[in-house]
Automatic annotation (TrEMBL):
Domain of life of the source: Bacteria
Protein name: Oxidoreductase N-terminal domain-containing protein
Organism in which the protein naturally occurs: Mycolicibacterium fortuitum subsp. fortuitum DSM 46621 = ATCC 6841 = JCM 6387
Molecular function GO labels: oxidoreductase activity, acting on the CH-CH group of donors, NAD or NADP as acceptor
Residue stretches spanning the membrane: none
Length: 156
């Protein structure tokens, strides 16, 4: 039996598509056993989440840069957490990682584009602003869309 078999995982699930403002009836909190990482996976204990504007679009069921959230799925949000169990060479217990944790206490992560280990930072809130969706939006917006040139001034 692994450590994760003793952990409880609170999750917020999408119960129905919001009509107008999101209401408590649109979601449901459930408690399940924490997932157990398979070979090549690690278990992340979520410490902070960022609920950004994109999260609302995922609730609507419309396609976007990520698939729409399906009814019954964990509400998708970006987060940061600590690896508490690992069967993956990319992460060791104690590592801080940013990823799409969802609104839940524990998430399974893999060595992929969506899971970024954070090294050298001790303030998870600062990390969320830099490496979370807001920071990523700013970075890719400037690099891919704005493309500032030497001598230009950028005002934020």
């Amino acid at each position: 039996m692994t450590d994760s078999a003793h952990r409880q995982n609170r999750q917020v699930l999408l119960r129905r598509r919001p009509d107008g403002l999101v209401s408590p009836d649109d979601t449901e909190m459930v408690t399940t056993d924490a997932p157990v990482p398979a070979e090549g996976e690690a278990l992340l204990r979520t410490t902070y989440v960022g609920i950004d504007a994109a999260a609302r679009t995922w609730l609507d069921g419309e396609p976007g840069y990520l698939p729409a959230l399906q009814l019954g799925e964990v509400v998708r949000v970006a987060g940061i957490g600590e690896v508490v169990e690992s069967r993956c060479d990319a992460y060791k217990v104690g590592d801080m990682v940013t990823t799409l944790t969802g609104l839940q206490d524990y998430a399974i992560i893999r060595d992929d584009l969506f899971s970024t280990p954070v090294v050298g930072y001790t303030d998870p809130l600062a990390v969320m602003s830099i490496y979370g969706p807001t920071g990523a939006t700013a970075y890719f917006g400037m690099k891919g869309v704005g493309k500032p040139q030497a001598g230009e001034t950028v005002v934020v």
